[in-house]
Specification:
single chain; disordered C terminus; 4 helices; signal; alpha+beta; disordered N terminus; 4-stranded mixed β-sheet
Length: 153
Amino acid sequence: MKFLSCTLFASAALMAAQAQAQDADPDEGLGYVAEYGATIGEPDRIDSDGAALTDPAAILAQDRFNVDVRGILQPGDSPDEYFADEAQREEIAGADIRFQDDRAAAELADGTPSLFVTVMRRPDDGRLVIFLATSDGEPADDPDSVDDSTPTA
């Protein structure tokens, strides 16, 4: 009987650990990599061989290549030190791209969006997570400096 209760306890503990692992937030502990402004124009939608790009990661990689290597900056583009390195720019291909709003997704697919790009890294697998939000061209507000106590009309 003692063996059976130990086995049941061990099984229950294993199931609880597996459930907890499944419920773990994959974004917990994301590490900051970079942030920049990007305006996606026609030069960012065509690769170096002249082929049209439609994949969001490929478009973002071409944008960084154009800014950091070719010196093509459109209004709203800002350079970043991280993707100036070719090997680091190649990481964009395997990144998890996240659209923070519907407008960013729609305009990246078919428009000329001005984006605020935040790049983070997952601690468990090292994969980049790239958050895209539409931008008005101004630097983002520091969330800690925004006064949420003032009621809006």
